[in-house]
Design a protein that fits this description.
The complex is a heterodimer of chains A (about 425) and B (about 300). Chain A is of the alpha/beta class. Chain A has helices at about 1-25, 40-50, 70-80, 90-100, 115-120, 145-150, 160-175, 185-195, 200, 205-215, 220-235, 245-255, 270-275, 310-320, 325-335, 350-360, 380-395, 400-410; strands spanning about 25-30, 55-60, 85, 130-145, 175-180, 260-265, 280, 295-305, 340, 365. Chain B has one domain: MetI-like fold (Orthogonal Bundle), CATH 1.10.3720.10. The chains are: A alpha/beta (about 425), B mainly alpha (about 300).
Chain lengths: ~425, ~300
């Protein structure tokens, strides 16, 4: 009998010791598409977390942005995905939640630090469950070579006419390519083109929500006008822009060969490191002087919990920390250009990032028009917008034809547009 | 009379290959075909028969994309047949010339790209042809052809042909090696007998060597066909999954990838993806059958 008890006791202590030991050694892996940020996570963010949370190790394991969704879905299906999952906004994450690949995090204390708009990108349609902790948004606009502008005596344009006058002046001087963007990879045309300048025409949230409600259509003037402007861009993009890739454009700008770069604020870190000239930024120019301005302040990145994770407790601890002011400050300053979505008043040091975020005060914020609900069906509106924007800039399709094609595609499956 | 004993050693020797091949090829193949007959409705997988194929071939949305990819694929194959294989045969004929010096060097140099990764080839050529940093514009400038340089990979009319030629550059070593081996196996006596009858030089190639290497050319054609209709990597590495500009470089492989795994905001649809994969399988199967039953059985073989 005593032997049995002893055995049971030994067994119990072994199990206990085992659990204690494993609690000491939890390793959390993060799935992400931000492979550009690998060093920041390894050198700044993760050490800051681990310093206050002994026993939890965090590993950041990113994959290439264009492959992330496919890779992640395959990993989740196979059960080999990491504990924490970086969330794309809207439907990609919503589908993961509905398939049981993201846990409901509504009960997380840190959720109180985020406004409902910030949470909306990672909520069910009825808002009853939030499944990712919002991390950051990105703002669109134009970054320019301030030295080149000074050299040519140019001012930041505020209206579309001024914008094209500036482009003409740069073109005439001949020393710089007026604008650095290519259409080889297609997405820049839609993201830094159409969705960058568009909100000024469709009046931001007003037009976006009307489109979702079916009150406006993509063939309305407000939605075709941005394509008319894009069609004029082609003349200023430099020779061979048809085969110019995204990294080509980044390099053209940071090497000082191009004067203006249609940008997302996520470029700031890279540009600060690469460019050796002064940079400035201006928001998308408005059609007429005195118009109200709108910017794309896109909810871009969040982080959620894989329900299949064996380390859910430690992962929740990490997520609570992601929602804290400490994380918001570290992240916004480590990655200038990714602006915190939390309610904390985060102080940022980078002047270019400050410039971008200051537009939140002057202009109305909206998000990319194609992301919420409208890209749920086949054909996929976002992917079609890439194609249409690239075609319009290339001059291969007229703005009206492109808009009609998009509208037909959307109407083929989206009831409010039928 | 005693029954002959079961020859276990045959089973034992076949087993590893059969088991491995079944596990990693046959089972996934049939599983893909099976998956094509299902669809997901309200998060459960339901059997829908041939509905996915009806959508693929009947719905203009899908059939246009499919026919575009299929047409591009045929063009891709045609370029290989018209450029890669004749050049491969020509190179082999030159290499097998007994008086050619440094033959081993040329053979190796031409074959090396074949063992490079698609990704390296794709990126290297993208850089070579880049209108901004590439060496192609500079080289053309040096010989006064500057005006003829275009961003070929970015133009709808030229992108697919350019990619096909890049693929030809990469794989021309394979037909060259196969034909080279076939040419070397032609006995000297036959050629000498021809010489006695006055057939030498180019005539010897056309009248003696070419008929003797026809079976090899047949094999190369079918390998090219299967390889081209399964192609994916080069297009993906050079143009991305959206196979721009305006889907002009979209082939069945990239179309299947986009559908199966999804892309950006488009979510993956394994069932439609499997339907496309099954269609690809059928196309390749038909092509191979035409070759096997229509051509190979009629081909004359010579025993030396």
């Amino acid at each position: 009998m005593s032997m049995k008890k002893l055995g049971a006791g030994l067994l119990a202590t072994t199990i206990l010791a085992g659990t204690v030991a494993s609690a000491q050694d939890v390793t959390l892996t993060i799935e992400s598409w931000r492979n550009d940020d690998l060093l920041l996570w390894q050198d700044v963010i993760i050490p800051a977390f681990e310093a206050n949370h002994p026993g939890i190790h965090v590993e950041f394991t990113p994959s290439a942005p264009a492959e992330y969704n496919a890779v992640l879905n395959s990993k989740l299906e196979a059960g080999s995905a990491g504990d924490l999952i970086t969330c794309r906004p809207f439907d990609a994450s919503l589908a993961l939640y509905e398939d049981g690949h993201l846990a409901d995090l509504s009960d997380l204390d840190a959720m109180a630090n985020f406004s409902s708009v910030a949470q909306s990108a990672w909520q069910t349609d009825d808002g009853s469950a939030t499944f990712c902790v919002p991390m950051a948004s990105v703002i669109h606009g134009f970054i320019y070579n301030a030295d080149a502008f000074a050299e040519l005596g140019l001012e930041e344009p505020t209206t579309v006419d001024e914008f094209f006058a500036v482009l003409d002046a740069i073109e005439e001087d001949g020393g710089y390519i007026p604008m650095a963007m290519g259409v080889n990879d297609q997405w820049e045309a839609a993201t830094m083109g159409y969705n960058n300048i568009g909100p000024n025409y469709w009046r931001g949230e007003e037009g976006r929500l009307a489109l979702i409600a079916g009150e406006q259509s993509l063939t309305d003037e407000a939605w075709v006008a941005p394509y008319r402007q894009l069609a004029r861009w082609g003349d200023y993009l430099g020779r061979g822009f048809e085969a110019q890739t995204y990294p080509d454009s980044q390099n053209l700008f940071t090497l000082g060969r191009a004067a203006i770069y249609p940008a997302g604020s996520w470029e700031i870190t890279g540009f600060n490191a690469q460019a050796d000239f002064a940079m400035g930024a201006f928001p998308p120019p408005v059609p007429n002087a005195g118009d109200e301005c709108y910017i794309s302040d896109h909810t871009d990145i969040a982080i959620g919990l894989n329900p299949a994770s064996p380390n859910a407790e430690a992962a929740r601890t990490f997520l609570e920390w992601v929602g804290s002011e400490e994380f918001a400050t570290i992240y916004a300053n480590a990655l200038p250009g990714f602006f915190s979505l939390s309610n904390f008043d985060v102080a940022m040091e980078d002047p270019l990032a400050q410039e971008f975020v200051s537009w939140r005060g002057e202009c109305n914020s909206t998000i990319r028009s194609t992301y919420q609900i409208l890209s749920r069906g086949t054909p996929n509106l976002e992917n079609d917008t890439w194609n249409a924007s690239a075609q319009v800039i290339r001059g291969a399709e007229s703005p009206e034809d492109a808009a009609a094609r998009l509208q037909a595609g959307l109407a083929s499956w989206y009831e409010p547009q039928q | 009379m005693r029954k002959p004993p079961i020859r276990w050693h045959i089973l034992v020797f076949l087993a590893p290959a059969v088991l491995v091949y079944t596990a990693i090829m046959i089972i996934p193949l049939f599983n893909t075909l099976r998956l094509a007959l299902f669809d997901e409705v309200d998060r459960t997988r339901v059997f829908v028969g041939l509905d996915n194929f009806r959508t693929l071939f009947g719905d203009p949305l899908w059939s246009d994309a499919f026919l575009n990819a299929l047409g591009n694929n045929f063009w891709f194959f045609l370029i290989h047949m018209l450029v890669q294989n004749p050049i491969g045969i020509l190179l082999a004929a030159i290499l097998s010339h007994p008086r050619l010096r440094f033959a081993a060097l040329y053979r190796t140099a031409i074959f090396v790209p074949t063992i490079l990764s698609f990704v390296i080839v794709g990126f290297a050529w993208k850089l070579i042809l880049s209108p901004i940093w590439g060496i192609a514009p500079g080289m053309m400038d040096a010989v006064g052809l500057d005006d003829y340089f275009l961003p070929w990979l970015g133009l709808e009319g030229t992108a697919l042909t350019t990619l096909a030629l890049i693929s030809v550059w990469q794989f021309v070593g394979i037909p060259m090696m196969l034909i080279y081996a076939a040419l070397l196996s032609i006995p000297e006596e036959i050629l000498e007998a021809g010489e006695c009858d006055g057939i030498t030089g180019a005539a010897a190639f056309w009248k003696i060597k070419l008929p003797l290497i026809l079976p090899s050319i047949g094999i190369i054609s079918i390998l090219t066909f299967v390889g081209n209709f399964n192609a994916f990597d080069l297009i993906y590495a050079a143009q991305g999954a959206l196979a721009g500009p305006d889907f002009s470089t979209d082939i069945l492989g990239t179309f299947m990838y986009r559908t199966f795994f999804g892309f950006q905001l488009q979510l993956g649809d394994p069932h439609m993806g499997s339907a496309i994969a099954s269609a690809m399988f059928a196309i390749i199967l038909i092509g191979v059958c035409i070759y096997l039953f229509g051509i190979q059985t009629r081909m004359r073989r010579y025993q030396f």
